[in-house]
Amino acid sequence: MKFNDNFLWGGATAANQCEGGYNEDGRGLANVDVCPTGKDRSAVITGNLKMYDFDDDHFYPAKVAIDMYHNFRDDIKLFAEMGFKVYRMSIAWSRIFPNGDEETPNEKGLAFYDEIFNECKKYGIEPLVTICHFDCPMYLIKNYGGWRNRKMIGFYEKLCRTVFERYKGKVKYWITFNEINMILHAPFMGAGICFEEGENREKIKYQAAHHELVASAIATKIAREIDKDYKVGCMFAAGSAYPYSCNPKDVWEATKVDRESYFFIDVQARGKYPNYALKEMERKGITPVMEADDIDILRKYTVDFIAFSYYNSRCVRTDNSDDVAEGNLFASAKNPYLSYSQWGWPIDPLGLRITLNHIYDRYEKPLFIVENGLGVKDEINENGEIEDDYRIDYLREHIKAMRDAVNLDGVDLIGYTTWGPIDLVSAGSGEMEKRYGFIYVDRDNEGKGTLERRRKKSFYWYKKVIESNGSDLD
Ligand code: P53
């Protein structure tokens, strides 16, 4: 039971959750910078509470994060020590275009990512670059309304052209938008959208989604023009929805929940809006305004591969139960067959095999698992070690499930990057102590700590997994 020799093992991060250096070398302010920790975070990221500027009463985790802006050489060296074949990271838009609508890019921002890619190259690590991981320059939000505005397509196009040209020969794999379906659940984080009183939220979200979908297709077009070897992927937050019971009502509701996410990938991978979405949008009066060429662009420039995050499956029930699992942006009924993490996320390794099969059956394109992992509190013991067997167990079971999907079911899988190979700021909660890493970072929820890095037990385990190409999981 092995993987292809060229299977891409590695880890994934996002600029806003690890870089810090929020105002260095000309970087502009972004939506992700002004998301606080604590009770207001959820209202901010979902677009219900407008906090466009720093408020002195709040702590903002992204300002410093884990300061990878200054530590990236050492951090990438540690990734190399584990044997990473791939490193998924994202480009901070506001380092390249601080406001977002400038004519010329910020050279210092571009140079920073040159250095990252040079470090990767040194160790034979293939970069996998997310162009937009939840970030949007604050200037574009204040002056244009974020992705609700069609002009965003042009600004994003400029960003893509700039990075595709600059990093030609250094990067091969690109992802246009992280978790594009997150626009429905966290529209401020996903698309820089904050709602006004009385607005039709669904209409705004689907209009913004249309803009991102067209922007993604245009990016794919430009990538192919600039370098025919570029591989461009879409990315969504996956995890199949299970009906709670065999009551057809539950089954139908679960189908609808899945379609909410598939909708985006149907457009990006098959090149057209699916009928179920067209019909529903028409019924609800939320069909997006489209321009004449849009349909054609979406049809012509579909993605090369489909990337997704998988943390858990979902569960859907239609009876009036308030038995809802907390702690996740995706509302889900509690699944009695699964155990739950400290943050209330279900743990379902077989669900990964199920999800891989569902996605592959639907699209028959190469897949890439670009996020998977367990967010937990870690303890440092008296010997200064972190014995994170729970993390090893979680990952082992998920890797087994993925191995079955590849070897027994024939799913075409390019690679696997765990989320947060080094501890970083949680996107959902803003906490530092929801840790995913093989590498511990000394920093707490209030921003205290030395930022020192420390290898956990899982570090040595993952090294062995990669060395053996997934055959030694003990
Ligand atoms: P955190 C919710 C549900 C599924 C994926 O999440 C999600 C979220 C956001 O909370 O986001 C992805 O940090 C995302 C990463 C994020 C990771 O999952 O809330 O792409 O940026 O950090 C884990 O535990």
From TrEMBL:
* Catalytic residues (positions): E371
Q: Quote one Gene Ontology molecular function term.
A: 6-phospho-beta-glucosidase activity
Any idea of its EC number? Answer: 3.2.1.86
Q: Which Pfam families match?
A: Glyco_hydro_1
Q: Which residues form the signal peptide?
A: none
| InterPro entries in alphabetical order | GH, GH_1_N_CS, Glyco_hydro_1, Glyco_hydro_1_AS
Write out the entry's keywords from A to Z.
Answer: Glycosidase, Hydrolase
Could you tell me the superkingdom of the organism this chain comes from?
Bacteria
What family name appears in the similarity comment?
Belongs to the glycosyl hydrolase 1 family.
User: How is this protein named in the record?
Assistant: 6-phospho-beta-glucosidase
Originating organism: Clostridium saudiense
Q: Mind giving the lineage of the organism this protein is from? A: Bacteria, Bacillati, Bacillota, Clostridia, Eubacteriales
Q: What is the primary gene name for this protein?
A: ascB
